[in-house]
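User: Quick sanity check before I run a bigger batch. Here is a single chain. Can you write out its predicted 3D structure?
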Amino acid sequence: MSRQPLRLAVLEAQRVLTDAGVACPRVDAELLAAHVLGVPRGRLPMVPLVDPSVVEALRMLVSRRAERVPLQHLTGTAAMGAIDVAVGPGVFIPRPETEVLLAWGLAAVRGVARPLVVDLCTGSGALALALAHARPDAQVHAVERDAVALSWARRNADTRAEAGDTPVALYAGDIADPGLLGALDGMAHLVLCNPPYVPVGVPVAPEVALHDPPAAVFAGHDGLAVIPDVVRTGTRLLREGGSIAIEHDDSHAVAVPALLAARRVLTDVADHVDLAGRPRFATAQRTTLPVSPESSPRLGR
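Assistant: Done. Predicted structure follows.
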């Protein structure tokens, strides 16, 4: 059979995905075509004609995407920073919105030699591994309580270490545990966290509702069931001058900064927007409380 124009196959894929209600049909069609061909998306214009087998492989993937199987489950990877991580059933798919949180964290430790960084609720390990890739001198620790997600994180950590990145220390643990990472108390230059934060009952896309683990998405009626533990644990881990950044729902622009501000040792509390301009994560810095006259030791004459 004769070769066929790739452009027409991509246009047909875009039409199918549009009809299925996929949010970014053109982008997804091109990314799936690039995946089938094994080339970067930007090189698609350099492949004018393809074999019928390529068109058929693309058609099959597009059919599954039209059923709202996540794009990342079809390609097997998700991007974070300068790296890709493996994802699939049982682990939360990293979102582009979290790139801003990563960038803020990297800026927070710019100029800090050998920073100690902790990633709470690491999931696939994307944040921790992207930071370790960008800062080879960093000591990065990451925590996850779910066994399936932790297995994905270990797989990704092994892959990045084999590629030459500084290994990340992974721990099975619950951020509600008051003794979690106790050996690191007061040592972290940076604590990052992308916790579950969607209020139960809030409608989500089929890709999330049908494929992301519910425990990695939803957090009580107000979406704040987990974040207070993140604040407590993160504050305990921070050293003086250390920073914390917590991703949150766009309805939490007041609530999460308030939780941070309620900790007397945290200052410079601020909220930040994501790439779409929506409230997305809150930050603070640990300071040393001034000693009040009442608590100062009295000197004898």
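The chain has two domains: 4-67, 80-286.

User: Great, the batch can go ahead then.
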